[in-house]
Amino acid sequence: MKILLPLDGSVYSKKAINYLSHLEDIKKFTNTVFLVNVQKKIPSSIENKLKNGVVEELQNAESRAILKPAKKKLEEAGYKVKTKVCFGRATENIVKVSKEIKPDLIIMGSHGRTPVKGLLFGSKTSSVLASTKAPMLVLRKESQYAEDRMRVGICIDGSEYSNAAIKYAQQHMQLFGKDPIFYLINVITPHSGLIIPEVSAFGAPAMTKEEFEREQRIPFDEKVEPIYEELRNKDIEAKVVLLKGDPSEEIAKYAVENNLSLLILGTHGRGAFTSMMMGSTAMRIGSACHLPLLLVHHVTEEAEESKNKDDTSSER
User: Fold this and answer.
1) What predicted TM-score, i.e. pTM, was given to this entire model?
2) Where are any strands of DSSP class E within 40-168?
3) Which of 270-278's residues contact partners 24+ apart within 8 Å by CB, and which partners?
C-alpha cells in the first residue's frame, strides 16, 4: 500500500501525521509513505532583487523544517518514508505526484467549512479530490483517532459509488484497526403524503406509507445482506442502520450521536462548483460533522487493471 501525504506545516497536516502514526495495523501493509511539500514560486520581480540562490535556500530551509520532523515521527512509528519538494501551485503538484506514484490512499487535512465557503476559499482538499481518482482520507482539526475499537460507518445507497466504497473498505481492512464495528447505513425518503389517495394521478393503485418505504428498502436489503454476511463470516461485527429523512443531515446526526470513528462514502469526484450545485451529500456531511471522512471514487475495471499492472511493474 502506498500513501501520499501532502504537508504544509499547518495544524491540519500535523493532525494527519499524528493520525497516521496511530494506525498500527496498516504499517505491515504499507510499502511507502510519500511526504510532499509544495513551495510557492516567488515572483520574478522579487527574485531578481535578491542574491542568486537566496530564494532557493530559503525555500529548501522551509521545506526541511516541515518534512524532517514529519519523516522522523513516521519512521519512528515504523513506516518507510520518502520526501519530495515541489514548486508552484499546491493542487497541481499534488495531483501530478499522485498520478506519478498512484497511491492507494491520500491523506489531507481540511478546515471543514461549509461547501460554499470551501468553494470561495479555494479548498486544496476539494480541488485534489476533484482531480484525482485516488481514495482520500479527509481529516479536520477536531478529528480524533479512536483509541479503542473503531466504529466505522459505510453509507450505502446501491449506487456504483457506494459499491466502490464498500469494495475499498473490504480490501483495506487494515485501515480500521483491530475488531472494528461496521455500521451499514442507508437513508430512505419519508412518505410525503402526496401519493396516499386510493388511486394515483396515473390511474394506478396508490402506495400507502408502509408500501412506499418498503419499496425503497427492498433494494437496500438486497445490497446489504451479502455485505453483512461477508463481514460476519470474517468475524467482523456489523450492524444494519436504516434512517429516514435528508441523507446528509441524518447520516451526520447518527454519526455524532453514536460516536462513530470514521465515515466511508462513495463520491462522484466532480469539481467543487459542480458539487455545490449538485448538493453533494459527501460535502454536506463533511460540513455537518467533524469525523474523518474516507472518500472513495468509482473506478472503472479498465482503470483498476491499469493501476494493478503499474504496481506490478514498479515492484520488479
Assistant:
1) 0.80
2) 81-87, 105-110, 136-140, 151-155
3) 270/130, 271/127, 271/130, 272/115, 272/118, 272/119, 272/123, 272/126, 272/127, 272/130, 273/119, 275/115, 275/126, 275/130, 276/115, 276/116, 276/119
Which strand (E) or helix (H) includes residue 38?
Answer: strand 32-39
Largest CA distance in the chain: 84
SS3 letters across 219-267: HHHHHHHHHHHHHHHCCCEEEEEEEECCHHHHHHHHHHHCCCCEEEEEE
State the distance between the two ends of the chain, measured CA to CA, in whole angstroms: 15
CA 45 vs CA 40, 51, 170: distances in Å: 14, 13, 53
> Within a 10 A sphere around the Cβ of 91, how many other Cβ atoms?
20
Angle at 18 between CA 14 and CA 21, to 5 degrees: 140
C-alpha cell at 30: 504499507
Report the chain's mean pLDDT, rounded to a whole number.
77
What does the pLDDT look like over 104-143, one tens digit per residue? 999 987 754 444 444 333 357 777 877 888 999 988 766 6
Handedness of CA 42, 45, 48, 49 (dihedral sign): negative
Residues in contact with 180: Cβ distance below 8 Å, sequence separation at least 6, in sequence order: 149, 150, 151, 152, 173, 236, 237
Query: Do residues 116 and 64 make contact, with C-beta atoms less than 8 angstroms apart?
Result: no
